[in-house]
Design a protein that fits this description.
Blueprint (H helix, E strand, L loop, with lengths): L1 E11 L5 E9 L2 H7 L12 E4 L4 E3 L1 E4 L2 E10 L4 E9 L14 E5 L3 E6 L2 E7 L7 E7 L2 E2 L17 E5 L7 E2 L13 E2 L1 E11 L4 E11 L5 E15 L2 E11 L8 E7 L7 E2 L11 E2 L5 E5 L2 E7 L4 E7 L12 E2 L4 E8 L10 E12 L7 H9 L3 E4 L3 E5 L1
Length: 396
């Protein structure tokens, strides 16, 4: 007689309202099966998560260390939602994989493309570039980032969503600008070189890649190494999350040695056009239908018109980062940054590793319609999942 294992879970929402929230439970199903007195191994394809409020199965994903799922709909502040996780030890049956609602990453050799149900979410360019970056990034109504543009503005190195190193000061290696020319004030321009992907994974809640990068000076000297882990979530048709975790070994470099998380929005979303300056408007003339900038504790949001509507892009700091919260700095011509931290950070000793976390949040509407402040709270204070006693059901 075969067995089904049932794990009841309570999810504590906390003092904020959540909409299509993401929740994770750290659990080792194989260990639970063993402690229940059975020798079989988990069948990963058998794992399901059921919302006990509706009786429906929800989008869920098994990954090393736990299970992540989508809390569909609205969760009121102070609520406790009940779920059941079911799994068994039967061998999976051969058959065609159901790709519906899978967040998929496809490697094209120079870029990764994230899609869901044949809808493109974003592209991550990692080869033949000075430093890897995301572009285009699609909002629900159009592209919210700018690519490589060469115009009178003079900032071709502002593109997409990216992680930069160094500053434009004369000392140290500069991975903010992108030029082989020696320019006044700016330090030597180095490169973030893609070494390999350790992992490319897709699933019903998120897609993920883990990448190793080498930081090189202009002469090719490798002065630092970075391990980058990125997850791409698409909870619903109006929202997308790109979560970054960065581990940087101490750079063999001088100068500020600053890591900075940055973005450049689509030209239509700007407040001003920096490529069109006048004596009256030295920072560029205002657009006829300008975008909007909003800020809060540890976040900034840039929203504006795109192809088919009004969309926004927000950058979030994380409480695990040192000196939290940092407030991103937004320029009206479309760049926002400021989430920079010089190495060493926190208690990282010489020769140690610094770790940083960030989120880019893509949404419909402006900061209010996109619930940016609330989503920031969801990111910094995730719902808490608590497992109950494992139940075992006999199946004929």
């Amino acid at each position: 007689m075969s067995k089904t294992f049932v794990l009841p879970v309570e999810v504590y929402i906390g003092p904020i309202e959540r909409v299509n929230g993401i929740v994770s439970l750290q659990v080792d199903c194989d260990n639970l099966i063993w402690h229940a007195g059975y020798n079989g191994k988990l069948n990963p394809a058998s794992v399901t998560v059921t919302d006990m409020r509706t009786g429906n199965s929800v989008r869920s994903q098994l990954s090393p260390g736990g299970i992540t799922w989508l809390m569909e709909g609205k969760s009121e502040a102070g609520d406790v939602r009940l779920y059941e996780i079911r799994f068994d030890t039967e061998q999976p049956r051969e058959g065609k994989l159901n790709s519906k609602d899978l967040v998929i990453l496809t490697d094209f050799g120079t870029e990764l493309v994230a899609t869901i149900n044949e809808t493109e979410l974003c592209r991550y360019k990692y080869r033949e570039v000075w430093k890897p970056f995301f572009h285009p990034v699609h909002g629900p109504d159009g592209i919210v980032t700018r690519g490589e543009v060469f115009d009178n503005e003079g900032h071709p190195f502002h593109h997409g969503i990216w992680m930069a190193y160094g500053t434009m000061e004369a000392e140290g290696t500069n991975m903010w600008s992108e030029s082989g020319l020696v320019q006044p004030r700016r330090g030597m321009t180095g490169r973030m070189e893609h070494e390999t992907f350790e992992l490319i994974r897709y699933g019903r809640v998120f897609a993920e890649f883990r990448e190793r990068l080498i930081y090189r000076k202009p002469d090719g000297y490798p002065f630092a190494r970075e391990h980058r882990s990125v997850r791409i979530y698409r909870p619903d048709a109006n929202t997308q999350y790109i979560d970054w975790q960065v581990r940087l070994e101490e750079p063999d470099d001088k100068g500020p040695r600053t890591m900075t998380f940055s973005a450049r929005v689509a030209p239509s979303m700007r407040v001003r056009d920096l490529s069109n300056r006048t004596p009256e408007h030295p920072m560029g003339i205002p657009l006829q239908n300008p975008g909007r900038i909003a800020k809060g504790e540890g976040w900034a949001d840039f929203s504006g018109p795109v192809e088919r509507g009004w969309n926004g892009l927000a950058l979030f700091d994380h409480p695990d980062n040192p000196d939290y919260p940092k407030e991103p700095f937004a320029n009206e011509y479309g760049t926002f940054t400021g989430l920079g931290r010089p190495y060493p950070v926190s208690s990282a000793a010489r020769g140690g590793v610094a770790e940083l976390r960030y989120r880019a949040y893509i949404h419909a509407g402006d900061a209010d319609e996109g619930r940016v402040a609330q989503v920031m709270m969801e990111y910094t204070h995730p719902a808490v999942a608590v497992a109950g006693k494992l139940q075992i059901i006999d199946r004929n």
